[in-house]
Amino acid sequence: RIKAIPYDRAFKVHAVLDLGVGQALAAGFYQRVGNEIHKIDYWEGEGNEGIPSLVKVCQNNPYIYCKIFVPHDAEGTEQATEKTRLQTLKELWSALEDNIFVVPKLGVDDGIDKGKLMFSRLWVDAQNCEKWLDLISQYRREYDEEKSMFIEKPRHDFSSHAADEYRYAAVIEDEMTNEEGGIREMNRIRQQRQSKLKNELLP
């Protein structure tokens, strides 16, 4: 399942993003074809590249997008801009503002388990995802030097962001559909959550 997996114009593309800086900035591009998940492309930042660089890459791609997914920590406010990374992304990619969704918070171990399950349905473009394949193959558990053994905690290194992007994709796999109705439903649920939170914060 690792071979040439061309972009199929009959299906929309879902982008799963990890919103960091430089190497911590990653994007995976997926299509759902029946019960299969096709990873047709992967991009990772370099140097001091930030969200503007990521948006430019996404917009320059020939893909027709459906949903954009970002991690839950994208809702945290950054001191430099006094905005959340989610707000910055929506401002820069205003055409798809209503199609940007936050991935539900899930424990890393649970997310890894979902990633393992999705592997059986995952098809990967060997050329466009060559870097991702190299990085994901090096994702591993932390090694305890004192005990001379691996522990359950994943090691945080150069491979982490490629793994995180894939983990987010596995968490929202069921949301990567080709029906517009799915977008409307996700928006409705999000609006309900925001209204509930607003009411809870009111005195």
Please tell me about this protein's structure.
34% of the residues lie in helices and 26% in strands. The chain is α/β, with parallel strands linked by helices. It has a seven-stranded mixed β-sheet, with helices on both faces. A two-stranded antiparallel sheet has the order 6-7. A two-stranded antiparallel ribbon has the order 10-11. The radius of gyration is 17 Å and the shape is globular. The termini are far apart. The relative contact order is 0.18. The mean pLDDT is 82.
Compact description:
About 35% of the residues lie in helices and about 25% in strands. The protein is built from 6 helices and 11 strands.
Low-confidence stretches: none
Q: Structural class from helices and strands?
A: alpha/beta
Helix percent reads 25-40%
Gap from first CA to last CA? 55 Å
How is the largest sheet built, in terms of strand order? Answer: 1-9-4-3-2-5-8
Outline type: globular
Approximate strand percentage: 25-35%
- H/E topology pattern: EEEEHEEEHEHEHEEHH
Radius of gyration: 17 Å
Largest sheet: 7 strands, mixed
Count of DSSP helices? 6
Number of strands: 11
Mean pLDDT: 82
Key phrases:
single chain, 203 residues, alpha/beta, seven-stranded mixed β-sheet, two-stranded antiparallel ribbon, 6 helices, 34% helix, 26% strand, globular
Layout of strands and helices, then pairs:
Elements: E1 2-3, E2 13-18, E3 26-33, E4 36-44, H1 51-60, E5 65-70, E6 77-78, E7 83-84, H2 85-92, E8 100-102, H3 108-118, E9 122-125, H4 130-136, E10 141-144, E11 149-154, H5 160-171, H6 180-201
Parallel strand pairs: 1-9, 2-5, 4-9, 5-8
Antiparallel strand pairs: 2-3, 3-4, 6-7, 10-11
Helix pairs in contact: 3-5
